[in-house]
């Protein structure tokens, strides 16, 4: 068994056009999906709209929205990449959605991460490179310079993903081999922080090594 991230990428305009009843039905179906995953599910979260998020770069901070938007993730255990992709095809989505299935290089999550009150933020580590080798080198540098520098009172764990060509993409229930970089920003990992506000996370990110070789997209989690 190995760890995999199923990352749901949405066209937020299409989702916003849904009626309140349709939105509620989709969320209910996703809740049932998480229940069906059972002991295969290590962690899951739904992110607030990307228009509320921030991307932190070395010399600037960009406000959302972002497209496509990371809307939710499921961290699962599966016997193989093919088995993980098969589970991804069962996730309730709209026709415009895609799910990236990526194997984990490493990861850990603190148990009971939502047991305490307060805001939790997902931070997606982004890298932009012309080749996968260059992207991987950037992720390696970020990893080596940040792995021991998380604030202990705020860090809730996270993971690092293997390169995109080791994964698969699910779109309209079809499964495709892992996407190439195509000169776009690609997620290299996701970690969670409990802080008072998104501005606090931005301020921490600006003083971190994460943005020396890439960028961070910061999004608050929905709390239920």
Q: Can you walk through the features of this model?
A:
The protein has 224 residues and is α+β, with helices and mostly antiparallel strands. The chain is built from five helices and twelve strands.
SSE layout:
Elements (H helix, E strand, L loop, with lengths): L1 E9 L1 H5 L3 H18 L3 E6 L7 E3 L4 E3 L5 E10 L2 H9 L8 E12 L9 E10 L3 H15 L8 E7 L6 E4 L2 E4 L7 E11 L2 H9 L8 E6 L4
Antiparallel strand pairs: 1-5, 1-6, 2-5, 3-4, 3-12, 6-8, 6-9, 7-11, 7-12, 8-11, 9-10
CATH topology: Alpha-Beta Plaits
**Strand residues, percent:** 35-45%
Secondary structure tally: strands: 12
In terms of structural class, how would the helical and strand content be classed? alpha+beta
* Second CATH tier, the architecture: 2-Layer Sandwich
Largest sheet: 12 strands, antiparallel
Q: What's the shape?
A: globular
Q: In the CATH hierarchy, what is the superfamily?
A: Dimeric alpha+beta barrel
Cα distance spanning the termini: 30 Å
| Percentage of residues in helical conformation | 25-40%
Sequence stretches where pLDDT stays below 50 over 5 or more residues: none
Rg of Cα set: 17 Å
Order of helices and strands: EHHEEEEHEEHEEEEHE
- What is the number of helical segments per DSSP (H or I, 4+ residues)? 5
Count of folded domains: 1
CATH class: Alpha Beta
Average pLDDT metric: 93
Labels describing this entry:
12-stranded antiparallel sheet, 38% strand, 224 residues, alpha+beta, Alpha-Beta Plaits
């Amino acid at each position: 068994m190995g760890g995999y991230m199923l990352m749901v990428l949405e066209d937020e305009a299409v989702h916003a056009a849904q009626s309140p009843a349709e939105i509620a039905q989709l969320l209910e179906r996703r809740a049932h999906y998480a229940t069906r995953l059972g002991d295969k599910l290590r962690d899951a979260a739904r992110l607030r709209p990307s228009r509320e998020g921030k991307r932190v770069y070395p010399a600037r901070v960009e406000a959302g929205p972002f497209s496509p938007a990371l809307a939710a993730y499921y961290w699962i255990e599966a016997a193989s990449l093919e088995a993980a992709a098969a589970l991804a095809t069962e996730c309730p989505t709209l026709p415009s959605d895609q799910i990236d299935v990526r194997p984990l290089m490493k990861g850990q999550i603190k148990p009971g991460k939502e047991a305490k009150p307060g805001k939790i933020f997902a931070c997606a580590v982004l890298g932009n490179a012309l080749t996968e080798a260059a992207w991987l080198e950037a992720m390696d540098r970020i990893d080596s310079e940040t792995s021991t520098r998380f604030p202990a009172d705020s860090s809730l764990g996270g993971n690092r993903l293997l390169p995109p060509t080791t994964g698969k993409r699910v779109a309209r229930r079809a499964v495709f081999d892992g996407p190439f970089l195509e000169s776009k920003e690609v997620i290299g990992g996701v970690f969670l922080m409990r802080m008072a506000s998104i501005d606090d996370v931005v301020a921490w990110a600006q003083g971190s090594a994460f943005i020396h070789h890439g960028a961070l997209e910061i999004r608050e989690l929905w709390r239920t």
